[in-house]
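Model it.
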Amino acid sequence: MARWLAAYVLAVVSSAGCRTEFVQTAFKPERAEAGAPNERPGTPADAAARLEAGARICGATIASRITVTPVDVTEDVHYRRLGYNLIPEDDRIAFGIGPDGAPSIAWREAAGSRVHLTALDGTLARRGADTVVDATDIGGLVAQRDGAALLVTSTDPGEQLTDPANHGAIARAAMLLRIRGGVQVAAMPLTGTSSVVAGAVGQARDCIASPLNGRLEWNGEKYGAYFAVHGCDGDAHASYYGDKLVYLDDSGHASPGGWAWNCSIDEGLRLLPGASTFTPICLSDGTPARGLNLVAEGRASQLIAAEYSAAGYSAGSLGSIVQTGDGGFAVAWSSRGVKNAEGQVVADRAAPDIAFVAMDSSYRVTTAETWLSNTPDVAELGVHLAPYGASRLLATWETFGDLRCNTQTCEGTFLGTHARLLDATGNFVSPDETIAATPNELEDIRLFPNGDLGFVFADVANRDRSTQPAADGGAPAPALRTLSVARVTYCP
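Modeled.
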């Protein structure tokens, strides 16, 4: 099969609202390699197999392999929000790559009442105007050849339930929106009395808190939507928080499987698509266990690692789960560790460090909990893993100094974003580097069909984590009308 290497420079394209400021060398797959409609995006092993050894011109460092493309938008972006203890963190900006290598971005307007879908082509230039939908939060994005699917929070089309966890306010619903050709063609409620998955996972009087804590993935045949819920008026779990996993086909019909109320969600959840069932993990404050839990369907829940927690909060934060080239899994997260003191689980580490475990294809943990950092005076947060070929992983994280920590959270000054390559068991195989692109804290790094990696971020100077007044929880400042897409060239 003929393959060819194309080196190109993307100039400023003001009419498309997109410009690239760096030279990029890219491997262009043939049409046959792009895959059939609605195929599952490539795995690390088959993506690496598409590349010929030595066929790419690569820099010696990770930083030199990163190309950043600014994408101009027409409204101010809601790129920061207040998290636990009123500490600022990234707002969700979702990123997806279609099977043809064309990405899409989902982002909220600064006013918070509408979500934009910005579609790009393989060169990261715009494919027309944004699709704009009425929604208040983003829980996930899957890019497809003909458009995209979005997991969002929106008005509940069913009975208007009240939310006892929000002072009796009218509850909102999780919705799966299907967009084709720039137009919203379907909206499927996943919570509430009109839920399309009520028959699969039980009667639904559940609702969604804000912000939406969720993930949406696609395996080529069905979507898996995994998100935090709580019980609304009339539900047996009223005011309590839990999780929900549902499956739907591309027409919005419920598929067998999934559950409701399995894991009490706190500081994050992730979902990895599989051939039939998907692999979810959650960081819980108590159920099924305090810490990081594997809650794969059809098997007993499995505690991967304990974490200090209080009611409604865990000191750890996810983090990524990725599949490795041998069919196993790697998990990384920001951890405070635990130790037992008079029968209580308490934070062991002065500041969050990066924890790592590996599992085989049967979810058996094959490595002890490994610490990728040990820095009591520096907090490592915003941890990401992504497959870099068949045998390596890219790890990125943010560092914060001048710390002011309690047992749950840390305030601090942003010091920089780091990147290193790991093997599948968590050993570093490249030096520590500082990079100029910071992946969105709540979104995953995605895989292009040719093995490159991609992520979206808001390129802003102030990433400090310092307590803010509750009144500052509206539109972030300064105003931002440019999103940045980073592409990391894969080098064998």
